[in-house]
Amino acid sequence: MKTPLIPLFIFLVLLMVQCQPKEKFSPLSVDQLASAYESSKEGAVAERRFKYSDVIALVKGRNKGVFEVEAIGKSVEGRDIYQMTWGNGPTKVMLWSQMHGNESTATMALFDLFNFIEGSNDGYDELREFLKNELTIRFIPMLNPDGMNRWIRRNALDIDLNRDALRLASPEAVILKNARDSFSPEFGFNLHDQSTFYTVGDTEKPATISVLAPAYNYETEVNEVRQRAMQVIVGMNEMLQQVKPGHVGKYDDAFEPRAFGDNIQKWGTSTILIESGGYPNDPEKQEIRKLNFMAMLHSFQLIANGSYTKYKLEDYYGIPDNSFKLMDVIIRNLNLTKGVYQYRADIGIRKKETDLAGDYFATGSIDDMGDLSIFHGYQEIDAFEMEIVQGEIYDQEFDSTEDLDQEEAFELLRNGYLAIKVKEGKALHRLPLLVLKNQNRIPNMVSVGNVPNFFLAKNGNLKYALVNGYLIDLDKPEKVAFKQRLM
Ligand SMILES: [Zn+2]
């Protein structure tokens, strides 16, 4: 009598496995996520400083057969803020981007995600079908269109929306609060950009992505809501580590009673903060945009198939904290003279962007000097065997900046010229040297707060040029995107 029971048992086990729909889909591999990004990338946006009017069609003009698109209110200056909804599954997920106007990396990735969602016959139909049946996803891209157009953090009332979650003085804050309350999502993604000067713990690696399950009280306790956010983060981190090992940090988890992330967590939505930081040679954050896309799509899968529940909180706490230890350039052991004093100091340079003529320029000034051994640089050199050489102004005046290209400019640098003079010129240029029109001297103050411009020579040979915060290796100059102003 025992023998027929064994096949019956096997049959029952198989039936149980079959009946667990949440296990039926295994998440995409890292390569598949990356290739989904490549085929979905929104070509209309290639740089991070875009205006509302440049991109609003990417929201408003969405395929109505796929997304439900709805204007849910207006910014202070009357710009429409939209929400887009996709899917009809039982688990609700809400994502909002750019509540800080000058933090656009995740918005770019959302445009890519929208393309992905609208795609078909590309090998991802099964995934889309699965996500659509398990999740209802609501997107609110560009929550602060007025700040975005000015490329500032705050809105047109000069209020930081992320400190307005309780007082709700700004219409944009009211819109986000209402959207959360009416939809009551189980999961929320709060999408921001952070400073490019964060490292992952004490390592030299930039915190390219930082994550946080924001605290809902000063004691930073963990309830079920926050725990779920932490688990999704561990799953997201596991994937990101395969793409950019060591480049994920944890954002400061001090409770901020006025912030949206902290309150939305408190109101019962498991909230995941994603902060886009810096990555070497990625000034327009396109590499980071890709990581955002991959992280969001991966998280949707973990939430939809329930597999995030397997992750352990200790692995959340194991993600290293952000540390503010990066500079754009560090020149170590520079030989300096002040009066009778001869001394060695490291100098650390951080660049700052300034808006001009519908674009911007970057200026690097000395942020700190002395013993900078605890800091790291996106670019670093040891000047121990080098000496500072002052740059010259090229004696022949050019008509305009159009008269020479980057190659010719590098050649001038190799010959000791750090600046040229022009008769006419646009406010901005992309040459790797100083372009003077209104002034006759090269500013060079090696002191904190000032802009250093000089050469470094070894045994009499010029090795490096420091131009307005850009460090240029004269033996192998890189054609980076110089963004400078006419001086
Ligand atoms: Zn922000």
From TrEMBL:
Transmembrane segments: none annotated. Residues 55-163 form the Peptidase M14 domain. It holds the Pfam family Peptidase_M14. It comes from the Bacteria. GO terms for molecular function: metallocarboxypeptidase activity; zinc ion binding. GO terms for biological process: proteolysis. This is Peptidase M14.
